[in-house]
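[step 3/7] fold_predict: job queued, chain A
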Amino acid sequence: MTIFDTTPHDAARTSRPHPQPDTSALFAMSVESSVDFTLGPEVTPVDAMERAGAMVGMSLPRFLAGVPGAEETCSAALSVLTELVDLTARYKAGPDLVGRVTWDGHHVTVSVGDMGRPLPAPEEEPGLYLVNRVADDVGQYAGDQGGRVTWASVAA
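[step 4/7] structure written:
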């Protein structure tokens, strides 16, 4: 016996359209674009900066296409990426360096982890002066490899 043999066939019930869920909220949300990368333990800080910059440098201009000031935003985000990758590569907690650059329609957020220490003061790491000058907000949170993920948000 199949399920169709035991289910009553109600023509009126099956011919009525099913109620559709309200999807208007889905269309109101912004589309997110992001690029993720992982660099293994053999990569030096200089190589990590070059590889991450090259990878993100190909995608970010496409994410920002049509956005006023896209070139400046892209340049600022890549500068932030370079500094955070350099800092994390020199003080990483685990074997790999991981990162994500996300465009949410208003900000480019650069996240790089896992750093094996709290974010130092700019006096200790001068590249953080640039990060703090260019980014709207900078912070850290607990990462997956026992360290910290450092992030910075750059407004478009």
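[step 5/7] annotate
The longest helix spans residues 70-90.
Residues 1-31 have pLDDT under 50 and may be disordered.
exit 0
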